[in-house]
Design a protein that fits this description.
The strands form 5 sheets. Strands 2-1-3-10-11 form a 5-stranded mixed β-sheet. The protein has a 5-stranded mixed β-barrel with strand order 13-14-17-18-20. The longest helix is centred in the first third of the chain and has 19 residues. It is globular and about 70 Å long. Helices cover about 30% and strands about 25% of the residues. It contains 14 helices and 20 strands. Helix 6 runs parallel beside helix 8 and helix 11 runs parallel beside helix 12. It has about 500 residues and is an alpha/beta fold. Bound molecules: iron/sulfur cluster. The site of iron/sulfur cluster has 14 residues, from helix 5.
Length: about 500
């Protein structure tokens, strides 16, 4: 079930993404991004590779018969998680919060998350969601009444709840790999609110809320939210959200929390029902294995138009000054990965390689060892804004010319790019299989002591496609989309 969840999206999510693809005009930025996403979904299920390199926080919801041995079951789940990690279907994602050491097998205090519940039945239900860090970081919790930017006051009413959801989606922009889906909890306390919000993500996208009051809010959000025009990956466009699922818990009279759990398009959840005695799978949840997987694309995937700009690393200042926001580029040559640990390291130490003219990829790939060689099996971009405190200084100090990631960066980085001559390229978040195929070799690795996702991998790439969203002239598509969507938000709050 873990392998299937990590590599194959459930049919309701596939259907929603297919509708999203059909909603965007061919040749536009969001349509190109959705084509790459669709191609990635097909590649992942064909080769049983991780849909996204961030295979997320494994979260299991288990219902057992009264008297079942939950201690034994937890041990079985932990062993299955470790085995899926050994097979490269899960990235080693469990990190000691104090030392930063990666446990290497996805096991550690708090990982995986396993919740047990009992029911008066003889069978066992196991549901799993894999929710990555980029979208988890865009979760939001509001204590009502609250004054919201661009929306005004959100009172302790369902209208206030609606405003909080719209604000959370607007605030996420493309950083959570939109189009996404939100699970929402009205009430509870701060802890139970977030948990119940995440539980809503186990509902299928096409179900109808049995509480007609909440169903009305869900419908209202879905009928207006796409007018924000944040679009796929925050590139602008017609589809920003593919689902909104709301639950409610009782609360203390003094508190009124609205908790929003944002999940990305790589919305990975599945489940099984097991025979209570034998442990055999009696049926799957969310998918029917007797139905063939219908490919997302019935035509070829990302097609070059001939207008793409070829970039061959290492790059000169003139190479990048010639680029402008909106250009589609194909990067070839040497690329170095670097995310949180590498950026923090580079602020205090010289780089392990010469970064002049280099391409720095915000990516924590899944890498497996084949004999003496390394092989990248999943390599999409990670959320770049986390590196905002460091990026401008690193561009200035070491002469980096191109930064690739997702979701864009802030004013400090934009200013450094203008001053020193560098650009930001937005790759398509989650398209881990698609990008892994642009990598023709792994030539080395530095700082492996930080763990596989955080190490600096030396990659050779060929025709790696991405879009210039911040250029060396002070322009930022992310800033433009954020400002334009804020104007739309104001009309929705009025
Ligand atoms: S698709 Fe994006 S937000 Fe989702 S897990 Fe992958 S990188 Fe994270």
């Amino acid at each position: 079930m873990i392998v299937r969840t990590s590599t194959d999206l459930p049919p309701d999510v596939r259907a929603a993404m297919k509708t999203a693809l059909g909603a965007e005009a061919a040749g536009t930025r969001p349509a190109q991004a959705l084509t790459i996403i669709a191609q990635n979904i097909d590649l992942a299920s064909d080769c049983e590779g991780a849909i996204c390199q961030d295979t997320g926080m494994p979260t299991f919801e288990v219902k057992t018969p009264v008297g079942a041995n939950q201690i034994w079951m937890r041990a079985q789940i932990r062993e299955a998680v470790a085995e899926a990690t050994r097979r490269g279907k899960l990235r080693s994602n469990s990190v000691d919060s104090i030392t930063g050491d990666n446990s290497g097998d996805n096991l550690g205090p708090g990982t995986p998350i396993v919740h047990f519940d009992q029911w008066e039945r003889d069978d066992i239900e196991v549901k799993l969601i894999l929710k990555g860090g980029g979208c988890e970081n865009t979760n939001a919790q509001y204590a009502l009444p609250v004054e919201l930017p661009h929306l005004g006051r959100a009172d302790r009413t369902l209208e206030g709840v609606r405003k909080c959801i719209l604000h959370a989606v607007w605030n996420a922009q493309g950083k959570g790999c939109s189009p996404g889906a939100v699970g929402v909890c009205v009430g509870g306390d701060r802890t139970s609110g977030y948990q119940h919000a995440k539980e809503q993500l186990f509902r299928t996208l096409d179900d109808v809320n049995p509480d007609s009051r909440l169903a009305a809010v869900e419908a209202s959000v879905m009928s207006t939210v796409n007018d924000l025009e944040i679009g796929t990956m925050g590139f602008g466009g017609k589809v920003t959200l593919i689902g909104c699922k709301i639950g409610a818990l009782n609360r203390l009279p003094a508190s009124f929390f609205v908790s929003v759990a944002y999940d990305c398009w790589a919305f990975r959840r599945l489940g099984v029902v097991l025979e209570g005695r034998s442990g055999e799978i009696s049926r799957w949840l969310y998918r029917d294995p007797s139905h063939p997987i219908i490919p997302m694309l019935d035509q070829s995937g990302f097609v070059r138009t001939g207008r793409e700009v070829a970039l061959n690393a290492p790059l000169s200042e003139a190479d990048v000054r010639g680029l402008k926001v909106g250009d589609v580029v194909l990067v070839s040559g040497r690329m170095f990965t670097g995310r949180d640990a590498v950026h923090s390291h580079l602020m205090k130490h010289d780089p392990p390689v010469d970064l002049r003219g280099s391409v720095l990829y915000h990516c924590g790939p899944v890498v497996v060892k084949d004999g003496d060689n390394w092989r990248v099996t999943a390599a999409g971009p990670t959320t770049s804004i986390r590196e905002e405190p460091y990026q401008g200084e690193i561009i200035k100090r070491y002469g980096v010319r191109v930064v690739i990631g997702k979701g864009g960066m802030g004013a400090k980085t934009l200013a450094a790019m203008k001053e020193h001559g560098a650009v930001y390229l937005n790759a398509i978040g989650g398209a881990a299989q698609f990008y892994a195929r642009s990598i023709t070799g792994v030539d080395g690795v530095s700082l492996l002591e930080f763990g596989t996702p955080e190490a600096m991998w030396h990659l050779t790439v060929d025709g790696f496609p991405a879009i210039v969203t911040m250029d060396a002239h002070g322009n930022s598509l992310h800033k433009d989309v954020e400002q334009e969507s804020a104007r739309h938000l104001e009309t929705m709050g009025a």
